[in-house]
Amino acid sequence: MNVRTVTIFDNPGFPVDERRLGRASRAATAIKAALEADGYDVQTVRFALPPFATLVGRDARQVVALARQLEQASAAHAIDYATIGPAQPRDSPDLFRAIPDAIGATERIFASALIADAAAGVRVAAVRLAAEVVHRAATLSPDGFANLRFAALANVPPGVPFLPAAYHDGGGTSVAVGVEAADLAVRAFAQARSLAEARERLVTLVESETRRVLDTVRRSCPPGVRVGGIDCSLAPFPDAARSIGTALETLTGGRVGERGTLAAVAFVADALDRARIDRTGYSGIFLPVFEDAVLAARAAEGCVTVSDLLLWSSVCGTGLDTVPLPGDISADALSAILLDVAAMALRLDKPLSARLMPIPGKRAGDPVRFDFPYFAPSRVLDPRATGLSGLFAGADAIDLTPRSRA
Question: Partner of 125 for a Cys bridge, out of 121, 160, 178, 395, CB 3.0 to 4.6 A?
């Protein structure tokens, strides 16, 4: 298991107070060094702001300035990536529409948009604005790569350590750790002789590894920084030994996308839920098409569809992540996909996000490959999405009661 990120949550204000950001960076650096001394590969240090409107107010022109300042200050203080946080449903459309400009003006700044929460329901207007962001961001570079740095969030609380979803709750400085733990499932299932043994082995591995990480984080965390916990999600890396797809196929004996995949995803998620740890964030199963070698291959073979990914999200993880879509998909069709994610998140009372990646010049079925070590080659998926119509064509909020409370 690797540590994907040590993420610091704080508010250095705007203009950015480099002294405060520097203190946060030193805390993260100390934790990173302690984890590396314990034998963990720590990939990145990240920084998350509160929702950016709390810093720039209603002035959308300042969003780019905030992003640039945050990127410059982060580079000066050994922070690998940072996020300006989400646009919120109550924000003006101009604030949403400033997000592609902020992403285009930077290289290591992320952003997001909240499209649903328990208090407000599914905000169709916010869904449409988030879809506009995806549509515009796809044109920022010839390969559509900029959408790696944007996600639509549904029912996602503050404190998730993974970007783009991370944002600060506005309180004091805190830290959370996100791990790359799909290999634990691969190891657990490869040597198991029964489902009971597979579950027991995975729970044991998750508990022992995450507790060891958290012990180190707490021991090395400076005074005044709260430890928010660990996101123990089974995040993959694009090789078979660290692929959640490999683990799922060990359970089913077939290919990801064939019948039995949903049961396998539910089994793994259930085992993860049984682990007794101080968790935060998603703490589920990541199913990112580009970031998982087996998922990417099965998508290229036509075994995995957007509908499959949505279905599996109902029993696990994080929603739609790094999903390649046709470059000519409309903003209205993107809205329909995001609406499904938002409705599922609220009805099932779970955090879900969507990181959609229209690929300019590509159609469904076309191969796609990025010169990026964290992505595997795949093919563009057919979204089978049209625009919103009927009663959903307006901008009304959709009030959904979680099923557990109905």
Answer: 395
pLDDT digits (tens, 9 = 90+) for 345-365: 999 999 999 999 999 999 999
Instruction: Read off the pLDDT band of 405 (50, 70, 90).
Output: low
Phi, then psi, of 121 in degrees rounded to 5: 80, -165
pLDDT tens-digit map of 199-233: 999 999 999 999 999 999 999 999 999 999 999 99
Q: What angle do CA 81, 39, 289 make, to 5 degrees?
A: 50
**Residue-level pLDDT at 2:** 95
Of the candidates 319, 308, 318, which has an alpha carbon nearest to the alpha carbon of residue 257? 308
Give long-range contacts, CB 8 A cutoff, 24+ apart: 199-207.
199/267, 199/270, 199/271, 199/274, 202/268, 202/271, 202/272, 203/271, 203/274, 203/275, 206/181, 206/232, 206/271, 206/272, 206/275, 206/277, 207/275, 207/276, 207/277
Mean pLDDT calculated for residue range 185-191: 96
Report the DSSP beta bridge partners of residue 317. Answer: none
Q: What is the chain's percent helix, strand, coil content, to nearest 5?
A: 40, 20, 40
CA 206: distance to chain centroid? Answer: 20
DSSP state of 391: G
Q: Does residue 134 contact residue 99 with C-beta atoms inside 8 Å?
A: no
| pLDDT beyond 60 at 406 | no
Residue 264 has pLDDT above 70, yes or no: yes
Give the residue among 344, 312, 317, 327 at the shortest CA–CA distance from 383.
327
Mean pLDDT value across residues 59-75: 97
Write the CB contacts of 17 (distance below 8 Å, at least 6 apart in sequence): none
pLDDT band at 285 (very low <50, low <70, confident <90, very high): very high
Quick check: 113 and 86 in contact, CB under 8 A? yes
Distance CA 208, CA 277 (A): 9
Q: How many angstroms separate the CA atoms of 7 and 179, rounded? A: 11
Residues β-bridged to residue 179? 3
Question: What dihedral do alpha carbons 287, 293, 296, 302 form, nearest 10°?
Answer: -110
Question: Please, is 314 exposed, middle or buried when counting C-beta atoms within 10 Å of its C-beta (0-12, 13-18, 19+)?
Answer: middle
* Structure tokens given for 364: 């469904």
> pTM higher than 0.85 for the full model?
yes
Say how many C-beta atoms besides its own lie within 10 A of residue 74's C-beta.
Answer: 23
pLDDT at 151: 98
